[in-house]
Each structure stands twice: as structure tokens, then as C-alpha cells.
Amino acid sequence: MIAPDAMSGDIVEALADGGLFRLRGILIGTVAFQCYSGLLGVRLPMAAILTGDADIAQDYAISREVEDSLPPILELLQGVDASFRPVPHRSGAAVSSAFQNADGYRVEFLTSNRGSDDYIDQPAKMPALGGASADPLRFLDFLISEPVRTMLLHRSGVPVVVPDPSRYAVHKLIVASRRNTDGQGPAKREKDIRQAALLFEALRQTRRSSDLALVYNEAWKRGPTWREGIRTGAGMLPAQDAERLNTVLTEGAKETAKKLSFRLESRPSFKAKQLI
Known about the structure:
This protein is an alpha+beta fold and about 280 residues long. The protein has two domains: about 5-160, no CATH class; about 165-265, no CATH class. The protein has helices spanning about 5-20, 30-40, 60-65, 75-80, 140-145, 165-175, 185-205, 210-220, 225-235, 240-255; strands at about 25-30, 55, 85, 100, 105-110, 125, 135, 150, 160.
């Protein structure tokens, strides 16, 4: 298993002790990716797991209905590092969905957006997050559906909830396709593609090809926007990784063919494309 950096570990431990995962919060992003080494029993390269932030997701409906809450989120974070401060929201709203310390370490809260794009830049009030709001994101509902429990290797171990690794991999293709081409966009896109490729191979090695095929098929059936995101993201894979994805999906489809009417001909074949 791979241990997170000390700050990430301390932050996740504080949130876990405060009840985040009991309240059905989900650890996403690169800190979650670090957990897949232990969950899948594979070795992941360090270059793919370096991070300077922690991303937390919670479904909006769950936050409203759970009738419980974390302690004040700023107090939890300042218990780890007193320099944590709320980050002013880009919309100008008098709430924060992100918190940052003096060293630039950032903790961000996200939620799913299944509605209008009018909500994308507006923070959602999340009653269960101890005063934090959350930024609504497209495609996040797919990522956080059917999460799994595992351990974060920090001190004696921190029980966490993370996305299913197959969902994480497919979601990374879609996210990569929507990254900006300026600022940190290209570097983040390259990291997205790298993490997706590593998980495709790990899922093949651990005989989970059918898991990937099922969630891939689910995403593919969600409509043209989803299919375009998958096509574009997969087209960014290096040639060897693109071929590996096709192989894993084909193997997975064959494994599930007797139970599902999984149509191989509906799945496009991907060609490699240079990462920008």
C-alpha cells in the first residue's frame, strides 16, 4: 500500500473522526487513487499519486436528508493546521466550498449536478458538511455511485470510502476531455489520463475486466455528451494504453455477455493521440 503525504493523511483522519464517512461523504481525487494500491493489491507508481489537495464529495440529496452534520468544518481543519482559511467563492457568494492553508494545501467539497448548467458556478448548501458548501459538477453522480470501503495507509490506518475503481477510471477519461488548455489544464489532463491507464491495467491484472465493462457500458448509455467525453478522453491515451483499454473492455464484455446484452459493435475503437 502507498501512504499519503502527512497533510493529506491528517486531513482525512480528522474528517473521518468527525463523521464524514458515516455521513456518506466520499473521498475522491488523487488521495482516493492512492487507496487503490491496497484495494486492488497492485503497485502504483509514485508519479501518479502526488497531490497538494484533498477532494471530498457528497450527494446533495443525502446531505439534505441525513439529519446530522460534521462539526464546524473550519474548526476541524484548523485542528490539523491553524492556518486554514475559507477560500472566497468565485461567484461572490458569502459561503466557501474550499479551504486552504498557508502552504497552499487545499481541501475542496463537491457535489453532483444533474440539473441545469445554471447551477454550475453556484455553491450548493450542504447541511451535513459543517458549514461548508459544495461546487456542483457534471458527471460526479456517476463517479460516486456505489462507492467502496477501504483503508488509507496513515498511522494505524484510516477507514475511508472511495469511488469504485472502475468508475474512477472511466470518469477520468471524461474529466480529461473537459480540461482547459491553459494554466494547469494540460498537466492535470495528463495526470487524469495516466491514472485512468494505470487502473485499466490494474483491473485487467486483478480479473475485474467485467466490472469495467459494466460501468463503461453504463456511462456510454447516458447519452451523446457522455459518449463524446469518453471518445475524446480515450483518444488521448498513448497507443499501448488505448489498445489495453480495448482489450480489457473486450474481455469484460465476453465475461458478461451471457448475463447482459452487451453489444461490442456499439463500442468505438480508440486511436492514440498525443497529450497536449
